[in-house]
Amino acid sequence: MKGRISLLPAVALVAGCLHIDDDFPFLHVGEDETTHEVDIEPSEPETLATTADEVYEGSCGQIPPQDPEMYGIYVGCTLNAVTVGDLNGDGHVDIAGIGSKSENGPPVLELLLADGAGNFAPRIYILPQWAYGVTTGDFNGDGVLDLVTSGGFGPSIVWYVDGDGGVAGEVVEGSSGGSEHIGTADVNGDGNTDILSTGDSVRVFLGDGTGTFGPPRVQTQLISRSFVVADIDGDGLVDLVDNFGKVALGDGAGDFTIESEFTVVSFADDLALGDVDGDGTVDAVLTSKEHGAISVRSVLSGWDLGSVDSPDQPIGVALVDLTEDGNLDIVSANRMARELRVYEGDGYGGFAAPSIYAMGTGDDVTHGYPHSPVTGDLDGDGLPDIVTANVNDRTVGIVYSVASDPP
Question: Does 364 have pLDDT greater than 60?
């Protein structure tokens, strides 16, 4: 019999009870990080490469006092989005984030390379442009995860990370500025990782497995702020659902056709997909900071499966089984309260009252609110942990899952 899973600050969810363990303190990554510039080569505008020139030594800023009530680590730079994955091929799940060296810039890519025991070695790179989003994928077929950042005011860029944490980048030709969300999937079933991004419309870039991408396949019918890809109708092809409730089915060649549309709360900010009620079909969980609620919809039928009260501006969401009971739980990032909330799912579409985890070190909402939570096994215990960027703060929020004995 599997034991229950608790959440610990690097806290715990056992039948809705929160347990805090003093053995998981507020962590520092240290002050020995180095920063490197990433320049565009004049002769090849499409190619980016690290110069390895040290820009400065030491921390991006002053380390704040230890705060046992805040879950996370001090990372120096102000990160706006994070992703997780084994970026240097050592078997440990690392963290990568995009943001700025300070509140006023310049833009940075920060790698937090993990040792599997909860410790992270930072590497910070000055970027040639602002980025809004970041995610992972193996774009060159070497078996090691790479990164791709959304364009901001310029094109999307793929970043290749070597075994020592060094990076080299290449522009995704045909990608547009203004992209907020970026995703990866094998949309045409050839075994290679492709890139999808938002902007004036969703654009699909088919990868050939060597790091080269074809021209954009522009989906003009999809003007989305955020989206998630999954096989919605069970035909084995990658489909797409966006924050406006549009369900677009993939044709297996890289294009999408809108099949249906379900009602969403106005100004849905983020969404996650999964089967929350155990009926074998895909459901969508959407956040709306304007309405202070998390809504649940059946993707194909459009049925309203209810909502979860989540005041204080929920702006990001993830679905993951944190309690190892086979049911998906909701993780929401709440802006005004500067906290992560975990709603344990019952497998029938219902969710328990939330467990709450404070994020950030600031004194007001403009500093340290969490954004776009992601999950990964940071400490190598086989259980999913929660990671979030704390916007305008110098921290990354982390809540660890830990196994506990069955009751």
Answer: no
